[in-house]
Design goal:
The chain is mainly alpha-helical and 355 residues long. Helix content is 55%, strand content 7%.
Length: 355
């Protein structure tokens, strides 16, 4: 369809055309937020927990879902505190290791292995040099909780209350109806795997957004972005990530399916061989600002997909949205800031392609 543009529009022809098409900075976030079938229920995570023997195997799925989300909020906060403490002691934010044993990596060492890496390789290396930090922190947290559980009668009232909450968390997960899966869609029933499963999903989304940024810009404008433009794109991706994190599990699955290359959905959500498709994204420029957006036709596809879902369950969004980290931001934002700073330092700033 031909759209007539006012040549005197002070915003310029590109912005004016997008505006007439209903496309503006942040439009895809607004549409994504509207996709959820029901209002999001805030996760409290601070109620007085009943004792473990009050749990019934006849809890409804919604009751299990809310309990799981509330406990996740509490124990993500504890796990993230351990991660933050490690990062304060090891400012490079990088390490290698196995079985929970970490060896911090110096920036100079990472520079040597990442020199000349493209976006895909640098993301792979960042994941390789940060994943064990999560595993180690969660393993340490779980060991502490199990130790307290064995000696619960010796604990103070406050510690006993929290340990009873941990025991209840284990019991609720044992019902096998958590929203985090492993392997062939099997529900996760272990507390450490449950928390790490959520972290793995967040890492997948963050990694894939950072991976596609240079290609999306180059496709849109026919040239490589400058360093400053790349950093603006990095900043613009976070609001989009947070909007996706607010979705219920079914709508989240539809979004991931639609913004990814057409593969089997189960394989996509298993976090194996899974990249986002740069062709379904666009970059909107308004004055000196850049905004990463999902193309309208892709959002239309998502809306068509979720029409077929029988989605009557309540939804909370990712529990990490409700957890404030040490910097006062939610944990997803702090996680993103950590990984994106590594991406900027070792890819954007080190890459001569970005002038």
């Amino acid at each position: 369809m031909f759209v007539k543009i006012n040549p005197m529009d002070p915003r310029g022809p590109e912005i004016a055309l997008n505006s007439q098409k209903g496309i503006y900075p942040g439009y895809s976030i607004a549409r994504i937020k509207s996709l959820a079938p029901h209002p999001r229920i805030p996760i409290q995570g601070d109620k007085k927990y009943a004792k473990i023997d009050n749990i019934s195997g006849h809890m409804t799925r919604n009751e299990i879902k809310m309990e799981t989300a509330e406990f996740s909020k509490i124990f993500i906060a504890q796990s993230w505190q351990k991660i933050h403490q490690w990062l304060e002691q090891n400012p490079s934010g990088l390490a290698i290791g196995s079985s929970g044993r970490l060896t911090p990596t110096l920036e100079s060492e990472f520079t040597a292995v990442s020199r000349g890496a493209d976006a895909e390789k640098i993301i792979s290396l960042i994941n390789q040099y940060t994943s064990e930090i999560f595993i180690s922190a969660v393993a340490s947290w779980k060991e502490e909780q199990e130790r307290k559980l064995k000696n619960i009668s010796l604990l103070s009232p406050d510690d006993r209350k929290m340990t009873e909450a941990y025991a209840r968390y284990k019991k609720v997960l044992s019902f096998g109806q958590s929203n985090v899966s492993q392997g062939e869609g099997e529900p996760i029933e272990d507390v450490d795997k449950h928390i790490l499963g959520g972290i793995s999903t967040a890492r997948m989304v963050i990694s894939n957004f950072l991976r596609i940024l240079p290609e999306v810009y180059t496709r849109e404008y026919g040239r490589a972005p400058s360093k400053q433009e790349m950093k603006k794109l990095v900043q613009s991706a976070l609001p989009l990530i947070l909007s996706i994190a607010q979705l219920d599990v079914n709508t989240f699955g539809a979004v991931i399916h639609s913004i990814s290359p057409k593969m089997d959905t189960a394989a996509l959500l298993s976090n194996r061989s899974h990249y986002f498709n740069p062709n379904v994204f666009m970059v909107i420029r308004e004055k000196d600002k850049l905004s990463l957006e999902v193309r309208p036709e892709c959002l239309d596809e998502i809306e068509d997909l979720i029409k077929d879902y029988e989605n009557t369950a309540i939804h909370t969004g990712c529990p990490a949205l409700f957890v404030k980290g040490q910097d006062g931001k939610n944990v997803i934002s702090e996680f993103y800031n950590w990984i994106s700073k590594l991406y900027e330092k070792f890819y954007i700033d080190a890459n001569p392609e970005f002038k």
